[in-house]
Amino acid sequence: MKTQPNQDTSWLRRMAEVEDNAELSVGGLAHELGMLGAATAAPTPVVKSAFAKLVGLRRRDMRLTVEQLAERAEVDVAEVVSIELGQLDQPEPRTVFKLAGALKLPAQKLMQVSGLAVPRDTRFNDAVVRFAARSEPIEKLSKEEHAALEEFVRFLAES
Prior knowledge:
Blueprint: H1 10-20, H2 28-32, H3 45-61, H4 66-73, H5 77-84, H6 93-103, H7 107-114, H8 124-134, H9 143-157
Helix pairs in contact: 3-8, 4-5, 4-6, 6-7, 8-9
């Protein structure tokens, strides 16, 4: 559906919000209004790093192996490994949605962290950069990593 340049888009924006909060959505209205990232655009290195670190740290914080996370999310183990290593340029939307459920994170925010959706909150990019900068992978979560993860998860959970 294409909107005319001078057509009032407030109704479309309200409907996109409803669609954005739905369990299942095709993303048509959100895409039309530029709320989703371009399918061919790769996420920035910082976004890619933050997504990889978030998935890995959250999995470790939940004391899950890669195999357990993949099983819970119903995604391929190799895909989870690629995500955590930051080797996957752009994950599939289905994968991100399923990981969000398995990791108990808001799906729409995880889509933004993955680079698949455009954040509407101007604070989002700052939070992503801060998280990526403060979380270094180690065997066990340090107090600082745990604090950074919890702060970022709280931010993601905000309405």
